[in-house]
Amino acid sequence: MSDDMTRDDARAGDPGELGPQAMDAAREYNRPADIVPRESMWEAIRARRAAAKPALVVERGGAAGAPARPAAPGFVAVRRWPAWSYAAAAVALLAVGIGIGRSLRGTPGTAGSLVVAENGADSVNGTAFQVAATEHFGQVETLLTWVSATPEARRDAQVAAWSRDLLASTRLLMDSPAGADPRRRQLLRDLELVLVQLIQLSPDVRDQDRTAVDDLLRNTTLLLTRIRTSVPAGMAPAHD
Amino acid sequence: MPSALHRDRGPLDDRQLATQVLAGDPRAEREFYDRHVDKVYRLAHRLAGDPALAQDYTQETFVRAFDRLGQFRGDAALSTWICSIAVSVSLNGLKSLGTRRKRETALDNAPEIAITRRESNPDLKERLWAAIDALPDGYRTVFVMHDVEGYTHEEIGTALEIQPGTSKAQLFRARGKLREALKDFEGEWT
């Protein structure tokens, strides 16, 4: 018999349902309780959708100017709201970098005793700040890409909080050896300006304050280009 | 009690409701869920035989349904469309678990057990359930949907993406296998 039966074929060979008692028993098969746990399932569905919704996606080592889009193979999804953890990680890394730098400068009386060791320390010192700066620019790039692509984010209180943390990290870096490089120092200064603008914009800016928004977007776009130029592709940390 | 959507605009049909959900209206999302959750949960439970799995599969069904609602064209009822997702989620979930619930009474051992316990209805019920468990997925799904949950062959065909005639054929075979499993109890049972 083929899989496709006509109605007549089916009726011709089919004696119909099982007997009444068997049908009663069949209706008890895997029978669910009368009460469906609606609310708990709804909460779980909402939570899962909320967790999945936000994602901002940055192409791994990808081209500049690609803001938000659905996740796809080969892309790194950056969750929307580990903002605090990003900022905390950046600050922690900066602190470690600066701590390493200070400890490797040596103490008075010992400095200069071993020229080779001092040169080695400077090298490690520079590397630590380089890593800290790269991590920081990666965080800033994520924030600015998101802000550029998501108009409502510009007035979001959490964006303001994230910006404040990044502003603190930016100022730390400016005062560290990472800020000794003139080109990087200028980038950090401009970054400071944009972060301040972001903090001032969100969350209570009024619609008519278009100039501030336009300035911010223009500065953000320029800054993103400069960050991507200064941080080689693949150097910025990936987050998931 | 009518939902907020009903009070404001009157009951929405499937297409209108889908449009509202796609527009991001949270009340429409809840309305969509409320309309279909009982049916989805019942079907998932019938297939999985376990409340926790049924909840998992129901949640997964709705998450996918919300994600894919833009693909709903209105060719079938929204309830049939979401049931097709529920069946797919449940069967795939069970396959990946590799643990479709097995009754203590394996079908292969059933005849001798049946002979010795003919008078015991609870045991016979267990035997029927074991026989249903032992059906191939396609037969079991059609049997459960048609004879247990009352879906039509047209609805089953749409949900499983098969012809209604195929659904009838699979039901025919499912019943045949169940009769075979219960052949020692002819009469009222078969």
Could you please describe the fold and organization of this structure?
The complex is a heterodimer of chains A (240) and B (190). Chain A has 240 residues and is mainly α. Chain A has a domain at 81-230. Chain A has helices spanning 7-13, 20-27, 38-52, 83-104, 115-149, 157-174, 182-201, 210-230; strands at 56-59, 75-78. Chain A has a two-stranded antiparallel sheet. In chain A, α4 (83-104) packs parallel to α6 (157-174) and α7 (182-201) packs antiparallel against α8. Chain A is elongated, with a radius of gyration of 29 Å. Mean pLDDT of chain A is 64; it is low at 1-12, 55-86, 106-118 and 233-240. Chain B has 190 residues and is mainly α. Chain B folds into 2 domains: 9-99, RNA polymerase sigma factor, region 2, helix turn helix motif (Rna Polymerase Sigma Factor, Chain: A, Orthogonal Bundle); 102-190, Winged helix-like DNA-binding domain superfamily/Winged helix DNA-binding domain (Arc Repressor Mutant, subunit A). Chain B has helices at 4-9, 14-22, 26-48, 51-68, 78-97, 110-116, 121-134, 137-148, 153-160, 164-181. In chain B, α2 packs across α3. The radius of gyration of chain B is 19 Å and the shape is elongated. The chains are: A mainly alpha (240), B mainly alpha (190). The A-B interface holds A 1-7, 9-10, 13-15, 17-23, 25-33, 36-38, 40-42, 44-45, 48-49, 52 and B 30, 33-34, 37-38, 41-42, 45-49, 51, 54-55, 58-59, 62-63, 66, 101, 121, 124-125, 128-129, 132, 143-144, 147-148, 162-163, 165-166, 168-172, 175, 178-179, 182, 187-190.
Highlighted features:
heterodimer, A: 240 residues, two-stranded antiparallel sheet, 61% helix, elongated, disordered C terminus, B: 190 residues, mainly alpha, Rna Polymerase Sigma Factor, Chain: A, Arc Repressor Mutant, subunit A, 2 domains
